[in-house]
Structures are given as structure tokens and as C-alpha cells.
Specification:
63% helix; mainly alpha; 19 helices
């Protein structure tokens, strides 16, 4: 029976496609609540507190990390899920797990590791997040990974190349790789997490960018999505126009912008659901994407993303740090491929037992699991250099 208040097209934990290793139900928790708890108690989740979002871990204590970002995505996702009458617990589980495979140093580290792995299948953080929960976590006596439900695993894997999907389908027929081959959609809960991720990082990158001094409120006046709500906030609270009120003005503008995006997603998604009229979860999978912004909000969100790319992510100060961070990852990869025994014992043993592809993948797994500060310490230990203070 569908839990009270949930729509018929929401994911029902009682009807989950199950876990790769069958387990009896928990007496006090649903299957998706159980997934969430396993994620929160995992080693990979704790490491997110020292993994970069945009600003490296040593650059300030108040900037977002992967952990705080994941919490913000979960909060936004649950708020929207409640209004859409889809499963909040599943949304929370996916949100908290979606970045578990991210490398140290954010996208800079991911790009460097992908370059290092180019001849061995590449590196993609969504797929790595799945590897973390399926293989790399060591919590249980009889199997690797967290043994999460199909629906949570499906939501974690937002993107997947056809080659990777084919490999996954060969290992797990009818599993989470299948939809990429059939060009189907995931659950509404998974679709929502993808959009909540975008909403969260756009908003907090504005906040962190202004806090860092790399972008200004004056520059942001050229971004219609932000400027509308900044002007509204200043109109309603004129005293915030003074220099002493700028911090509160920024917070109020971001809060209003977030609220507007949340309401827009709810309205646009409800309209899409009404038009598609799914009667069950499988109807969602066969439909076009249903969780979305309105066309106007999508255009405004894209404008904000372009601004952040040009003015924050490509800021000379950020790019300088990015270059050094990527060098750290490249140097670590070279050191461990030459001397696998320099890794922690379980990774060294796995590298020694496999072929070249397995050895390279093991090195990538080890580096991807590092926090920013551990990567810096390891790099200094192995090379005698300190590229990031």
C-alpha cells in the first residue's frame, strides 16, 4: 500500500525493485529511510566535509563543502517533494549520496583524474558515486558496498555513457544501466534531485563568490534572475542599501530567488504531470522528463550559470588554484601507478592482484576518495613539494 499522502506515481518503498543482496525488512524504517541512514553513516559521507565545492578546504571555514552542499540539496529536494506528493525519504537518500564519488578539489580534481584515466575508461564522478555505494564502502561482513535499493542507486547515477551503460547491463541485466540504453527516465524523485542540485549550487556559489570578494553585488546586477530579487529586497527593506546592510541584502535576495525557483519547479512539474497523467512509477519512466523549470525560469537559470562560469569559476584567482590542484592529482596518479605499495594496504593489495586496467582503476578509486587536505599531505609526502598551503 502506498504511504499516506503519496501520489500513485511516487516511489513506494514497499514496491522497491530491491537490493543486490536480499535482506529482510527493517522493523521501524522504510527501505528508503534505511538507505538514507546507511549513507549518513558511511565513511565516504563523512569525507565530504573536507572536499571542495568551489573554494578549496584551506581557503576559509565558511565556504560550502561537498557535505554542506549535499545537505542543502536534500533540504530543497524534500521541500519540493512534499508539495509534489512524491517520496521525501528517497529524495533525501539520493541527495545525500549524489556527490560521494567526487574527487578532492572539486571539478578541477575530477577533470585531472579523467585526463589521467583517459586510456583506461576515464573518470566520471556520478559513476564513481555508484562505485562507492556498490563496491568501495566496507561496512558489512558478507558483501562490499552499502547494498542500497535500486531506486536510490538509479538516482545517484544521473549521467552515463553508452559504453558504461552496456558494461553495467552485462553485469546487472535489467539494472540501472538499462534506462540509458533505452533512453528512458528515472523516477520523479531522481529527476527532482538533479534539479535541486542545480538550484542549490547556483545559489550558494553566489553567496560564496560574494563572501570571497571575487564577485560583487554590482556585477550581479547584470543577472536578471538575481537582480529582480535583490531590487525587491532593497525596496522592502531600504536600510539594507547601506554598506552595513549588504550582507543581509545578499542573504534576503538569495532567499527570495530560491523560493521563486522552488515554486516555479512545483508549478511547472505539476503541469507536466497533469499533461502526461502517469498512473504509476513505470509510466514516469516512459514519459519525457517531468520535473523541470518553466521555460522562462530555465532561461534565467542558464543566464545565472553563464555569469558564474565567466566571473567565478574562470576568475584568475580560482584558475590559479585550480591549476595547482590538478597538478597535485596528476602527480599523485603518477606516483601511485609507479609504486602502488605507497597507497593504503587494501588498495595496494587490490592493485597488485589485478591487471593494468584494474591497477589504474584502483589508483583512481584511492585518489577520488581523498579529502583536499589528505591529498595535499600525500602529495607533499611523495614529492617533497607543497603546492597548496
Amino acid at each position: 500500500m502506498q504511504p499516506p499522502g503519496l501520489a500513485p506515481y511516487a516511489c513506494d518503498p514497499a514496491d522497491t525493485r530491491g537490493r543486490r543482496h536480499p535482506q529482510s525488512a527493517a522493523p521501524t524504517r522504510s527501505e528508503y529511510q534505511r538507505d538514507r541512514d546507511r549513507i549518513v553513516h558511511s565513511t565516504a559521507f563523512r569525507r565530504l566535509v573536507y572536499k571542495t565545492q568551489v573554494f578549496l578546504n584551506h581557503e576559509g571555514d565558511l565556504f560550502r563543502t561537498r557535505l554542506t552542499h549535499s545537505l542543502e540539496v536534500a533540504q530543497l529536494g524534500r521541500s519540493i517533494a512534499r508539495s509534489l506528493r512524491i517520496n521525501e525519504d528517497l529524495v533525501e537518500a539520493i541527495s545525500l549520496a549524489h556527490d560521494l564519488g567526487h574527487t578532492p578539489f572539486g571539478h578541477a580534481g575530477q577533470d585531472a583524474l579523467h585526463e589521467c584515466m583517459a586510456a583506461h575508461g576515464g573518470f566520471e564522478h556520478n559513476l564513481q558515486s555508484l562505485r562507492v555505494v556498490d563496491e568501495l564502502e566496507e561496512c558489512y561482513p558478507d558483501y562490499n558496498g552499502l547494498n542500497l535499493t535500486f531506486e536510490t542507486r538509479e538516482g545517484i547515477l544521473k549521467h552515463c555513457s553508452r559504453a558504461n551503460a552496456e558494461r553495467m547491463e552485462a553485469l546487472e541485466p535489467g539494472g540501472i544501466g538499462q534506462r540509458f540504453l533505452q533512453r528512458g527516465q528515472p523516477s520523479l524523485e531522481a529527476q527532482l534531485c538533479n534539479l535541486a542540485d542545480e538550484i542549490a549550487y547556483n545559489a550558494h556559489d553566489i553567496d560564496d563568490g560574494v563572501r570571497s570578494g571575487l564577485i560583487t553585488l554590482s556585477q550581479l546586477s547584470e543577472v536578471p534572475l538575481f537582480e529582480r530579487y535583490r531590487a525587491e529586497a532593497e525596496r522592502d527593506h531600504p536600510h539594507l542599501a547601506a554598506p552595513a546592510g549588504q550582507r543581509r541584502l545578499l542573504n534576503e535576495a538569495i532567499r527570495r530567488m530560491l523560493s521563486a525557483q522552488v515554486y516555479d519547479v512545483i508549478d511547472a512539474t505539476n503541469a507536466a504531470i497533469a499533461q502526461s497523467a502517469p498512473a504509476q512509477v513505470d509510466d514516469v519512466r516512459r514519459a519525457p522528463p517531468l520535473v523541470a523549470f518553466s521555460a522562462e525560469m530555465r532561461a534565467q537559470s542558464q543566464g545565472l550559470k553563464r555569469f558564474l562560469f565567466q566571473n567565478l569559476y574562470r576568475h584568475p584567482q580560482v584558475m590559479e588554484t585550480t591549476g595547482r590542484a590538478q597538478q597535485v592529482v596528476r602527480d599523485l596518479f603518477a606516483a601511485y601507478t609507479d609504486s602502488p605499495e605507497a597507497m593504503k594496504p587494501r588498495f595496494a593489495a587490490r592493485a597488485a592482484a589485478g591487471d593494468e586496467v584494474q591497477r589504474m582503476r584502483t589508483v583512481a578509486d584511492f585518489i577520488a576518495g581523498m579529502t583536499d587536505r589528505f591529498a595535499v599531505r600525500e602529495h607533499e609526502r611523495l614529492t617533497g613539494q607543497r603546492l597548496l598551503s
